[in-house]
Amino acid sequence: MARLHEYQGKALLKQFKVTVPQGRVASTPDEARIIAGEIGKPVMVKAQAWITGRASVGGIRKAATPDEAAEAARAILGLKMKGFTVEHVLVEEQIAIDREFYAGVIVDDRAQAPLVMFASVGGTGIEDIAREHPDRVASTHVDIEFGLQDYQARDLVRKTGIGGTLQRDLGGLLVQLYDVARTYEARAAEINPLALTADGKLVAADCRITVDDYAVFRHKDLGIAIAREYDRPPTKLEKIAYDVEAGDYRGTFYFIQMAEDFEKGQGYIGFHGAGGGGSMMSMDAVLRQGYKLATFVDTSGNPPASKVYRAAKIILATGPIDGYFGSGSGVASQEQFYSARGLFKAFLEAQLDVPAVIRLGGNAEDKAVEILEALNGRIPAKVEGYKKDDSPDFCAARLDALIQEARGKRQEARGKKQGARSTNHEPRTAQPPNHPTTYSFETVTGGRVTFDYTVCATCDSKACIKACARQILTLNDAGLPVLNITPEAAKKGQCVECLACEVDCLLYGAGGGKIELPIPGMER
């Protein structure tokens, strides 16, 4: 889920005629002073951070004057709150609260319907309210075809013991809140506390709105850069990874950066899972060996080799990890050599110098392991491949053993790295697409496949033709690889970026094929 800040949520409530305190967001003390002056009365200065309990860590302060508002902002901006650095504060008028309520709309996955909740007390979490005051809480599911009706909302309020004009007003506000949630496809929309002021107005004193990940693209006006529910702003690599996922619907790529600014030898592992449950089991296996996670990554749902490649490159960019561990469910329906090719290409380009243990269980797992272990001798580090019958704990223990071995041979590994780069793995100088000795075409994610015909002419196996997933390659009259479809069709997705034209070409052919796969935002 993609969280909105309080000020963003209140802007949506205001669009639907829900009253919110007068105020605006500020990013500097001077801006806070100006806003407080415009309001012209005592204000609250509130940290905009995706955490609970802001007041207890100094994230909410009162200010009687504009100068006090500036000082409050100065104290809050830059504050570290559970890993979240505060970059904005909401400056809004203080309100005189006579009574507090709770109002919420959440998606009930079990019932597959929205659930509207109301409590005649507020200020704490709905779970605490329900536990301490069960008679003060009422809820109802809503038929999305008809929406929340006025009579249903009033009846919900009535069940908590509220009648008269207040029942009518609260019911109307619940309908407005439901409309916000429905319009913006929110997984949750909560007002807590919903304040009844001394002069009889209902005001949303605080709110929390989260939008469904898969609906974010329909609501560009919300300005959500990354559709993930973090408790902090996303890192640069998380943004890059999300852009990869957003631009390629094939399979899933979920990336969380667990650590930053760590050093070699501190025990951080680049973790790369495949499938939710299997990834969690595999993550626990790494932790049981005493290591820490630099990343938590899931590439599942039959991703193309190119997506696994990009995931691996981003993992390797997180910092000086001590090892790379890949392990997932072990029962994937996709041929596992696709993921193996993605990892092979990433590790070869990076000249991986830390041990890697990869468990790729499922269809064609034997070929996947063959591809992975063909890296040995081509890169400084050692790579071991395992299959579905090899447990995550066994594989994690193997990674630990390799890391311990590598620590004693680090200087030797550096020497091998230099040697590997001075051999036939030296990157070839790129040639223009129309050079008479090359042939190239574009792929669906902005990649480019290039065949060096001077090398391809020496190839007897034609491994790229045999391994091409969609069989879109053929041989021309000179026995050299070309498309048997139009370049436009390849670019639209007929080329699925299986990476056989590079990886299988290198392993089983002459090595004349190459695919460039850009990752926007990452330095090459």
CATH superfamily of the largest domain, by name, is Succinyl-CoA synthetase domains
Please name the CATH topology of the largest domain: Rossmann fold
What structural category do the secondary elements indicate? alpha+beta
Q: Helical content, roughly?
A: 25-40%
Report mean pLDDT, rounded to a whole number.
Answer: 91
Largest sheet: 7 strands, antiparallel
Name of the level-1 CATH class of the largest domain = Alpha Beta
Span between N and C termini? 31 Å
Structure report:
The chain is α+β, with helices and mostly antiparallel strands and 524 residues long. Strands 1, 8, 9, 10, 11, 12 and 13 form a seven-stranded antiparallel β-sheet that branches. Mean pLDDT is 91; it is low at 417-435. It has four domains: 22-93, Dna Ligase, domain 1, CATH 3.30.1490; 97-222, ATP-grasp fold, B domain (D-amino Acid Aminotransferase, Chain A, domain 1), CATH 3.30.470.20; 238-421, Rossmann fold (3-Layer(aba) Sandwich); 438-516, 2-Layer Sandwich (Alpha-Beta Plaits). It is elongated, with a radius of gyration of 28 Å. The two termini are 31 Å apart. Helix content is 34%, strand content 24%.
